[in-house]
């Protein structure tokens, strides 16, 4: 991290900006835009649908605080995050006044699933009607964590996997995952210090370029392309319901069409409907950009536990950004088979072929290493050809070379595994993956299937399948599968 002090300030601003935005929005939640126009919010108020004192923040902040605590103590640990959410819901931990008064249906259902033994990343609802903003509102600490730990400037497979898995815990629809990914990428761009307009546009367009490459997001991709011109939208076009796409649009629109923190959050609240979450999400961005000093003092002194949260935000920032820029040893550590598969992935997705230089730029290795990897792929039956000029490697999709016999048993097992994984990478459908796998490889065990999928998911694939197809968490008599099984 080049500028540690600046980053710490940005983190504090984001956390406090979000908390104050949430508290401003709570008394106006569920009010229509017309009502808001008649009685606009201009300062902290009490009352509203939840009948809370002025400065009370809601579930958005509670979940953000849980996520921050978990990231500080354990790094990325979905199990621990869910445990904290569960304690918030059942024991009112991390609440403004010891009471949970606002919780989304999808979040509640996911925590219930978790309490009954389901692994965290399988708790989220993937239904079309479960596309609320519940994962978007709590994702920004994860983005800041990734930014602090790895000095990220743009979304990559590793970051996307963590962001998506964080969303999967409560919201598993591709729309929610993609909204979180785009939002986090905007945060990465804002943290890098580019001018506001440029940072948001860069963040959105880079994230869109990332998602365009993935089949899994193809059918929701189009819904997000209009974000590129969000700064030109008129107020009538901006919706502010609890739908994840609306919250993302409204937050970015408020940020780009205002010139200070208070203008931005008040604009978000006065859009009406899901006021607290819209203002919390917009407030995180505005707080990050303008800094905590811009939060008006009369709002600060009413916000519940403001000083305590300020102190916690500082601690969070200092924990997530390492003193010196030391690379995390687990990051980008890659096994031999992962590297061979990455080489295959690049060859597979470059129809014009990829040169040795291209491989060297994309992966960590030298010419000899990649030549050996390609030889291994050929041994596994992949018909990789070389165009002699400039030595460009490409996959001849039509026929597959007859694999040469192998004498070494270890090598033979490796080649067998590679043959299977290459076929999965080439042909797996993005729905009913496990059914396709079992039909394609009828003699391979379920455990091996899980290992294969885990191997590819570690490379950034998005293969989702039900680990326990027969287990229903809503069935009273069902016995939760044991953790050690996978
Ligand atoms: Mg709320």
From TrEMBL:
Annotated Mg(2+) binding sites: 58-60, 274, 276-277
GO molecular function: hydrolase activity; metal ion binding
Coiled-coil portions: none
Cofactor section: Mg(2+)
Keywords, sorted A to Z: Hydrolase, Magnesium, Metal-binding
InterPro entries per record: ADP-ribosylglycohydrolase, Ribosyl_crysJ1, Ribosyl_crysJ1_sf
Cofactor mode of binding and number, as noted: Binds 2 magnesium ions per subunit.
Xref: PANTHER family: ADP-RIBOSYLGLYCOHYDROLASE, ADP-RIBOSYLHYDROLASE ARH3
Similarity section: Belongs to the ADP-ribosylglycohydrolase family.
Protein name, as recorded: ADP-ribosylglycohydrolase family protein
Source organism (scientific name): Candidatus Caccousia avicola
């Amino acid at each position: 991290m080049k500028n540690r002090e600046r980053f710490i300030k940005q983190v504090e601003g984001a956390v406090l900006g979000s908390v104050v935005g949430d508290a401003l929005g709570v008394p106006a939640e569920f009010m229509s835009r017309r009502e808001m126009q008649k009685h606009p919010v201009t300062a902290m108020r009490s009352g509203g649908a939840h009948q809370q004192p002025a400065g009370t923040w809601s579930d958005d902040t509670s979940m953000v605080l849980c996520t921050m605590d978990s990231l500080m103590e354990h790094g990325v640990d979905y199990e621990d995050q869910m445990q904290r959410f569960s304690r918030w819901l059942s024991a009112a931990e991390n609440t403004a006044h010891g009471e949970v008064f606002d919780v989304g249906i999808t979040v509640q259902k996911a925590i219930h699933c978790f309490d009954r033994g389901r692994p965290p990343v399988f708790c989220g609802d993937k239904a079309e009607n479960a596309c609320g903003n519940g994962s978007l509102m709590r994702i920004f600490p994860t983005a800041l964590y990734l930014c602090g730990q790895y000095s990220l400037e743009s979304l990559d497979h590793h970051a996307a996997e963590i962001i998506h898995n964080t969303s999967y815990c409560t919201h598993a629809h591709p729309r929610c995952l993609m909204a979180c990914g785009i939002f986090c990428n905007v945060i990465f761009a804002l943290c890098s210090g580019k001018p506001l307009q440029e940072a948001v546009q860069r963040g959105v367009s880079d994230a869109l370029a990332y998602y365009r490459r993935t089949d899994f997001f193809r059918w929701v991709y189009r819904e997000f392309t209009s974000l590129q011109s969000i700064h030109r939208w008129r107020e009538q076009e901006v919706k502010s319901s609890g739908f994840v796409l609306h919250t993302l649009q409204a937050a970015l629109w408020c940020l780009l069409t205002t010139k200070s923190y208070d203008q931005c959050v008040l604009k978000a609240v006065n859009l009406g409907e899901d006021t607290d979450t819209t203002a919390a999400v917009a407030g995180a961005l505005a707080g990050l950009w303008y800094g905590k000093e811009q939060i008006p003092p009369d709002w600060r002194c009413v916000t519940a536990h403001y000083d305590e949260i300020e102190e916690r935000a500082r601690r969070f920032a200092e924990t997530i950004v390492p003193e010196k820029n030391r690379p995390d040893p687990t990051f980008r550590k890659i096994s031999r088979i992962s590297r061979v598969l990455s080489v295959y992935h690049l060859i597979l997705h470059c129809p014009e072929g990829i040169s040795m230089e291209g491989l060297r730029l994309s992966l960590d290795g030298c010419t000899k290493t990649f030549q050996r990897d390609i030889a291994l792929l050929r041994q596994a039956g992949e018909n990789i050809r070389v165009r002699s000029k400039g030595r460009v490697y490409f996959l001849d999709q039509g026929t597959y070379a007859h694999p040469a016999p192998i004498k070494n048993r270890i090598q033979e097992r490796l080649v067998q595994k590679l043959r299977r994984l290459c076929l999965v990478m080439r042909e797996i459908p993005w729905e009913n993956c496990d059914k396709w796998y079992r039909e394609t490889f009828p003699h391979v065990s379920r455990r091996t299937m899980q290992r294969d999928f885990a191997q590819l998911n570690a490379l950034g694939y998005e293969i989702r399948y039900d680990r326990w197809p027969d287990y229903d968490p809503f069935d009273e008599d069902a016995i939760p599968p044991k953790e050690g099984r996978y």
